[in-house]
Amino acid sequence: MKNISSYNFKNKRALIRVDFNVPLNNEREITDDTRLKAAIPTIKHVLKEGGSVVLMSHLGRPENGFDERYSLKHVVNHLSNLLQTQVDFVKDCIGTEAEAATKNFKPGDVILLENLRFHPEEKKGDKTFAKNLSKHGDVYINEAFGTAHRAHASTAIIADYFPNDKMFGFLVENEIKSIDKVLHSPTKPTTAIVGGAKVSSKITIIEKLLSAVDHLIIGGGMAYTFVKAQGGNIGDSLVEDDYLELALKLLNQAESKGVKIHLPIDTVVADAFSEDANVKTCKTNDIEKGWLGLDIGEKSVEKFSKVIEESKTILWNGPMGVFEMKGFQNGTVSIAKAIARATEKGAFSLIGGGDSVSAINKFDLADKVSYVSTGGGAMLEYLEGKDLPGIAAIKS
Ligand code: AMP
């Protein structure tokens, strides 16, 4: 496999699939430029090594071809500022104009192509479309981990046209290294923290983690299904009754594998799913009717933090409570802080999955953990052990 650090980019056109799917407001201004910033090291590296760069990405979910709201032209100025280089924009990602623009390219030039998803062929993984895109580069770099679990034309199919000149960008390389480290070569003890709303969406991951970790901390809405399965009273808390049996099975599986499961012992309950509700703290297995658990309590924070701070490898996916509401964010903030403290003491910590990433950003702790994954769904699928098309296409 080719490697971005050692590849000779001199006079080469690097066609880079980036993830510039940034949030825009009604004025079409970028409200969070994390994804643009994340791709800068790879782009700068190619330019420094004497190459030129053609960038391609999707933005949003356009339904029927061109839609001004989703045009990548909205990112050109900000990207130029970040790169301190003028980025040229081409109004279509394929066709004569685009081909002419990328053909006579000089080292140091940067072009951004228009939204790939203005062509339905992109999501269909169309071969001809992929071949047309491939004309823009001499070498292909996949720097879009967030879409690596999709077999789209620009993320997977295109790699066939670069049999000897395809590689990952720094970002994807780091994502893979970080997840592999947690799954395959962790320093022990290893702790996974899972939370969020539903058990049903995390079963495969929990099962996979049971073979990789020493401790599994379960918080958030999903914890109540486990507590009820063990006979506890959970009042009106979130529960998936269809998964009670499976929850018990997972607990048994954990025991037979020697994995210690930690469930919340106390819970912040409210009499409504609302910021203004009445709240109190009670035992997680003794919640009265009319009350619902919306965050883990202080005793649970203490218990979980102790496990986290004694760990050497930590993976966190999913909030401990309804952290979007101020009154129920303490559990999630405290766990994030415990992970930061463990990291300071030398642990490797990986934060992944949409909501834990928003939480860690919201509480300004992103630079206090080892790695914050950019690919929500893709990271979860990789953790589950699935072969991601975007990764397989480069490795094969
Ligand atoms: P997920 O996408 O499955 O990771 O779930 C994230 C969502 O779970 C967030 O929006 C949280 O507000 C929600 N959540 C966390 N804890 C609870 C809880 N105890 N009750 C209801 N929703 C929760």
Major β-sheet, in short?
Answer: 6 strands, parallel
Provide mean pLDDT, rounded. 95
User: What bound compounds does this protein have?
Assistant: adenosine monophosphate
What proportion of the residues is helical, as a percent range? 25-40%
Low-confidence stretches at least 5 residues in length (pLDDT < 50)? none
How does the overall form come out from the CA principal axes?
elongated
Strand content: 15-25%
Cα separation of the termini: 8 Å
* Strand segment count: 17
Q: What structural class should be given to the helix and strand makeup? A: alpha/beta
Radius of gyration over C-alpha positions, nearest whole angstrom: 23 Å
Major sheet: arrangement of strands: 3-4-2-1-5-6
Count of alpha and pi helical runs: 14
